[in-house]
């Protein structure tokens, strides 16, 4: 009979990058205590990475040695597991949109759930609770625009919106106008003034 650690390792290798392993989802291999010990052993041996309490991922083998899965794949798996919306921080969005050259030192994400600190190899991932309006159009360019402008604040947003507007498609501008009722007043007003057609 195959050892429990080998069964779990084999199962992890059949899963896509960033897929989460939890003891509860592995109970078909054995008793809870035995599964927990096997996960702990595999983590000590470096064959699994512990992201948070009870959550593990498989490192990805490369010709230079194993590397952690990308933060984006793990975040997507966590959002699905927890039933939360998780999106990039406004500073990251502003950088992606070319509105700032500032690059956040730490990996910070906004979540509709509670604050958490996760670990992915040597990298720390911080999840910060944010109000629901920060997740309007999550996963889309228009959502990136909203979070970037919110992070920039009223004066910088007013200064940079005209430049940003020129790079948005008419469809994106229309979507941003449509979602203004969901946004804070200052942001809704600035988007309306800058993007509404005369």
Structure description:
The longest helix has 14 residues. The N and C termini lie far apart (74 Å). The protein folds into 2 domains: 54 residues, Arc Repressor Mutant, subunit A (Orthogonal Bundle), CATH 1.10.10; 125 residues, no CATH class. The radius of gyration is 21 Å and the shape is elongated. By secondary structure, it is α+β, with helices and mostly antiparallel strands. Helix 1 packs across helix 2 and helix 6 runs parallel beside helix 8. It is 44% helix and 14% strand. It has a 4-stranded mixed sheet with strand order 3-4-6-5. The protein has a two-stranded antiparallel sheet with strand order 1-2.
Provide a compact summary of the structure.
This protein is an alpha+beta fold. It has eight helices and six strands.
Please trace the helix and strand order, writing H or E for each element.
HHEEHEHEEEHHHH
Biggest β-sheet strands, sense, barrel: 4 strands, mixed
Outline type: elongated
What is the end-to-end distance?
Answer: 74 Å
- Number of helical segments? 8
Structural class, by secondary structure, is alpha+beta
Give the rounded overall mean pLDDT. Answer: 91
Which oligomerization state do the chains in this entry correspond to?
single chain
Enumerate the strands of the largest sheet in spatial order, edge to edge or round the barrel: 3-4-6-5
The amount of beta strand, in percent, is: 5-15%
Q: Bin the helical content.
A: 40-55%
Poorly predicted residue ranges: none
Q: Give the radius of gyration.
A: 21 Å
Total tally of structural domains: 2
**What is the strand tally?**
6
